[in-house]
Design brief:
Elements (H helix, E strand, L loop, with lengths): L1 H44 L11 E4 L2 E2 L11 E6 L3 E6 L5 E7 L5 E7 L10 E7 L2 E6 L3 E6 H5 L5 E5 L12 E3 L2 E5 L9 E4 L5 E5 L13 H6 L2 E6 L2 E6 L4 E6 L2 E6 L7 E4 L2 E4 L5 E7 L2 E6 L14 E8 L4 E11 L1 E4 L5 E4 L7 E4 L5
Parallel strand pairs: 1-24
Antiparallel strand pairs: 2-27, 3-4, 4-5, 5-6, 7-8, 8-9, 9-10, 11-12, 12-13, 13-14, 15-16, 16-17, 17-18, 19-20, 21-22, 22-23, 23-24, 25-26, 26-27
């Protein structure tokens, strides 16, 4: 009887111990799930947007392409070409903004779009873009000039002019053709959104996108839009905005926006009487979308660093269209812009060189 009683008591104690252990495990699981949920919610509500870095880095050499030196360009800023003609925009042109060369030997052909304040003259031109057989010039006075390449080749100046509204938008620059429409980055808080969209008649359609600040306490004001002003690139319904200061890339597909940030993060600036005084790094110089990838030309030098005297970027950040980093290219010189040529290679404009056009190849991803 004694043995039996001891045996029963031992079994009861064992069952009680198992139940206690199970209860403890369940409690630990519940606590773990609770804190995991808090962590997930915290990450979801956080302003720390996707950060990118590159596992693959490749150094690439560039080759100079001799150009007809009968035209002296002060600041060769943007380039566009087809099989016949090459167009170079001189940002600080003393006489003409656009110089036309043959595409085979880069022999000088003619100059267009005279600098000045007359009826058919321009105070400034911020971008040029070749789309099919038409060259688009984004000029001062919120106007877009469209020229047919054949007319320019034959010496005829038969331009179509689109005038964009000024009231409510101010000075529009750094625009580009996006499908059948035109897009410009917002410069101040007078307009909602991040990007302004106009139709091919110059009528305002809508604005979209937003500045996604990492600091929840930071406010968006006029100086913020100045500091966050981006360069735009587009292809096949995808629009990309890459900030001129800081390290931020925004990808727009339809109404969907994805913002990714590198190690330098948001533009750093000081607000001085409503104007942005930049205190961080020079960011992106240009952005190109081609072959299902984003190619963003990056500077990364602090504006306070006096050791770097050359202008432009010598890094190309490559992403897929979802913003996933693919590769970082390190070039042997600095460029102010890049252009995907018809043969698959890239062209770069070096404002630090008297012979500004260079060619280089990026291996396929």
């Amino acid at each position: 009887m004694v043995v039996f009683c001891l045996s029963v008591t031992s079994r009861k104690n064992g069952d009680s111990s198992i139940k206690n252990n199970l209860a403890t495990i369940k409690m630990k699981i519940l606590i773990l799930l609770f804190f995991s949920t808090i962590l997930i919610l915290g990450c979801t509500n956080s302003k720390d947007y996707s950060r990118y870095d590159f596992d693959s880095v490749e150094k690439i050499s560039t080759t100079n392409i001799p150009i007809d030196d009968s035209i002296l360009m002060r600041y060769p800023y943007r380039l566009a070409k087809n099989d016949s003609l090459t167009f170079v925009l001189d940002l600080h042109a003393p006489e003409y903004f656009v110089h036309v060369f043959s595409s085979d030997e880069l022999k000088y052909h003619r100059s267009l779009f005279k600098a000045g304040q007359g009826p058919d003259e321009f105070i400034s031109i911020s971008n040029l873009q070749l789309d099919g057989d038409s060259l688009y010039i984004f000029g001062s006075g919120n106007q877009i000039i469209i020229s047919h390449v054949d007319d320019m080749y034959g010496g005829r100046e038969n331009h179509r002019r689109i005038r964009l509204p000024v009231d409510g938008f101010g000075f529009l620059s750094k625009g580009l053709k996006f499908g059948d429409d035109f897009c410009f980055p917002v410069f101040n808080v007078a307009s909602d959104g991040r990007i302004l969209q106009f139709n091919n008649q110059g009528e305002f359609m809508n604005s979209f996108g937003k500045i996604e600040l990492s600091d929840e306490k930071a406010s968006i004001e006029s100086a913020t839009y100045q500091a966050w002003r981006p360069f735009l690139g587009s292809s096949g319904g995808v629009l990309v905005a890459a900030t001129q200061f800081g390290d931020v890339v925004e990808i727009y597909t339809g109404k969907k926006q994805k913002t990714i940030k590198g190690k330098f993060g948001d533009p750093v600036f000081k607000n001085h009487n409503g104007y942005a005084i930049h205190e961080g790094i020079n960011g992106f110089q240009d952005v190109v979308i081609a072959d299902g990838h984003i190619f963003a030309l990056f500077d990364g030098v602090s504006i306070k660093d006096e050791k770097i005297t050359e202008q432009g970027g010598n890094h190309i950040y490559i992403f897929d269209l979802d913003g996933k980093p693919q590769k970082k290219i390190v070039l042997d010189r600095r460029f102010i812009s890049i252009y995907k040529d018809t043969d698959g290679s890239f062209l770069g404009l070096d404002v630090n060189s008297d012979n500004p056009i260079y060619r280089f190849d990026i291996p396929e991803m």
